[in-house]
Amino acid sequence: NGRWVSSPANIGSARTSGIELEAKFQLAELMTDAPNVDLRANYSRFWSSVDGIPGPDNRLDQQAAQTANVGLDYRMKTLPLTFGGSFNWTPAIHVQTSLAERVSTGRKRQLDLYTLWKYKPDLQLRISGSNLLGEDYDNFRVVDTGVLSQRSATSSRSYPAVSVKLEMKL
């Protein structure tokens, strides 16, 4: 009837594997007289292939090939203040989802920062900012059945958020 319908379906078998590396340590473990800095990082690498779909990008839908995160927390010695942040990175994703369809997602980068002031053990003020880069998220889709060819692009707005919280333990 002249319409083409795309509907997600499990079309066969897939193989997947991955490796994750994580490190957490205090800077003082590496250097004497170091500031009170806690460091953390992780890296993940993923592989997959879906039978019945030709490569090279016959991956599981929306699975990134890799992701990485780094972060730190700095506790001041003279004041009850802690500063910290983290950065998350996911590269662009390209997936052949069927014989006729290819989907891509743009890279994602996110920066979060915070400040924590502990007035007392049961009372603290937290000021935080999340998604401070405020990057838009882009998605692309190409369908080519030989008879029908369609290309679409979508850009989703992303906004930074700032919060101020007074935290009390009751």
Walk me through the structure:
About 0% of the residues lie in helices and about 60% in strands. It has strands at about 15-25, 35-50, 65-75, 80-90, 95, 100-105, 110-120, 125-130, 135-145, 150-155, 160-170. A seven-stranded antiparallel beta sheet has the order 1-2-3-4-7-8-11, with no helix packed on it. A four-stranded antiparallel beta sheet has the order 5-6-9-10, with no helix packed on it. Strand 7 (about 110-120) and strand 8 (about 125-130) form a beta hairpin. The relative contact order is 0.15.
Précis, in short:
This protein is mostly beta strands.
Tell me, rounded to a whole number, the average pLDDT: 91
Shape type: elongated
Distance between the termini: 65 Å
Broad structural category: mainly beta
Order of helices and strands: EEEEEEEEEEE
Level of helix content?
A: under 10%
Oligomer: single chain
Report the major sheet: 7 strands, antiparallel
Low-confidence stretches: none
Task: Assess the beta-strand content as a share of residues.
Answer: over 45%
Number of helices: 0
- Computed CA radius of gyration, to the nearest angstrom: 22 Å
Task: Please tally the β strands and state the result.
Answer: 11
Read across the widest sheet, the strand sequence of neighbours is 1-2-3-4-7-8-11
